[in-house]
Amino acid sequence: MKHGKKQSNQYTAFRPPPIEAGETCRNFVVKRYKYIFVEDLKIKNMAKNKKLAKSIHDAGWSMFGNFLEYKAVQKGKVFLKVPPQGTSQECLCGASVPKDLSVRIHRCPICGLVEPRDLVSAKLIERRGLAMIA
């Protein structure tokens, strides 16, 4: 760099998109909800799975969860980690509905519930979190 020329400041404001997107998501969640429940996932153990390791690290799950907890506590919100056991294998009616990770739709043979797997898991996590508060 020659003396007399001003250095471009285009690099000082740059932030990688995943962190920026995560920040936007975190802020949305913290502003919108009084209670925030997440699965208490053991990321290090999950990363030992050779098929999932790269995706888990790329997604920055640990960093997102840590920042979400920090923001929630900072804003006076309730942040709880709930046990993850069975959240993807259980129905809202309490029945066990085993399925592979590749199966994205939850179909309960007992109560007839048909919903996206992630939505059922989210409802179970919320239910468990509310039970922990009560």
Give the tags.
alpha+beta, two-stranded parallel ribbon, two-stranded antiparallel sheet
What does this structure look like?
With 134 residues, this protein is an alpha+beta fold. Helix content is 43%, strand content 12%. The protein has helices at residues 17-32, 43-46, 53-59, 61-74, 117-133, and strands spanning 35-39, 78-82, 105-107, 114-116. The strands form two sheets. It has a two-stranded parallel sheet. Strand 3 and strand 4 (114-116) form a beta hairpin. Helix 1 (17-32) packs parallel to helix 4. The longest helix has 17 residues, at 117-133. The chain is globular and about 45 Å long. It starts with 16 loop residues before the first helix and ends with a helix. Mean pLDDT is 82; it is low at 10-16.
Q: Number of helix segments?
A: 5
Query: From N to C, what is the helix and strand string?
Result: HEHHHEEEH
Mean pLDDT: 82
Beta percentage is 5-15%
Helix amount? 40-55%
- CA radius of gyration: 20 Å
Shape: globular
**Biggest β-sheet: strands ordered side by side in the sheet:** 1-2
User: Major sheet: size, sense and barrel closure?
Assistant: 2 strands, parallel
For the secondary structure, the number of strands is 4
Secondary structure class reads alpha+beta
**Distance, first to last CA:** 63 Å
Which oligomeric form is depicted?
Answer: single chain
